[in-house]
Amino acid sequence: MKPFSPRFTVFLIVLLDVMGFGLIIPSQPFLAKNFGATAATVTLLGTIYSLMQFILAPLWGSLSDRIGRRPVLLATITITAVGHATFSAATSLTMLFLARALAGIGAANISTAQAVLADTNPAAERSRAMALIGAAFGLGFIFGPALGGILFHLDHRAPAAFGAALAILNLILVATSLPETRSSNAIAASHGRRFKFSDLSSIGPELRQLVLTTLLFITAFALMEQSVGLFIERYWINPSSDNALEEATSLTSLFLVVVGISATIAQGFLVRRWLKSTSEVVLFRYGLGVVTCAMLAIPALGLIGSFSLFLFTGAALALGSGMFNPSMLGLVSLASPEDKQGFGLAVNQSAAALGRILGPTSAGALFSLSPHAPFLVGAALAVVALLVSRGVREEREKC
Questions:
Q1: SS3 of 118-132
Q2: pTM of the entire structure?
Q3: CATH code for position 60
């Protein structure tokens, strides 16, 4: 059998990884509550996952520069499989937290998958290649939660068990289809290098600027993700209805499916085409503009009361995110030294994980002030990100 191309293999790796994460989303709150968790504790389960990514991503990225991409992917996917299996077999809240921490440690490998694309694509093609990762995320968040909901009705441990099975399949995929993409000379040259957290202070000014832009954008997007269900419940659900919770869940799921489908179309087709004629810098700035407008439209549409129009904001958010993410990843790769691609992309992933911590932890407090506040603050953060990105060197636009 002819082996898959590295680009398609990375697409499958990320798809299976995101599906495994998405499978657990519908069952996570209910399993945690079954062990006595409060609402705040349930939220912490998601936080610890992102916290592990924030801490471990630079380590995995640097290690992949030193020993190669393939062994890091094999090790981290194994950790992911153990994490999902532990979640399925959990008999206490402590085991659930351990399981999510392990899964977060494993999921910190996304930057290593991105580094495979950086290794195997010329500079001019990297952003288009990175768009495939976004498409994989979109598909994973469509099929993962949907399948997880079905499996949960069969057995409450089935989603996590199936997630572990997907991780094992992923492990087989890497072992059989992904050759080492970092050259032996590059590995030998990096062999004596050891990662230290102090290395984070040595990144160049342009890379620092790009990473800060990512942090601001992801925080804004995470604010929206954590608040949109509460917003839908506030404006489109009758609180006196006997099925209020089910109705809110259905409408929120519909909104997220629109986001997932739109993200897949945007990054799988539209953005890859646009990057042939439009620079990364211009495209990610347009993306920030689209997200800002969508964030501002959400409060207005809540007041108007049109859920159909509200769904269009989901498509707009996915489009803006689809324009931003692959362009930013391409620029981060270009701003990173060739011998530190894994580290540079990992620092960016770490910033994104921090955004997924800051956004959710502040969303509830903002929503309690006003149901519009998370989206207005998100729009403001996107504008600040746009201002920060103005310092990105113009010659990057010619890449």
A1: HHHCCHHHHHHHHHH
A2: 0.87
A3: 1.20.1250.20
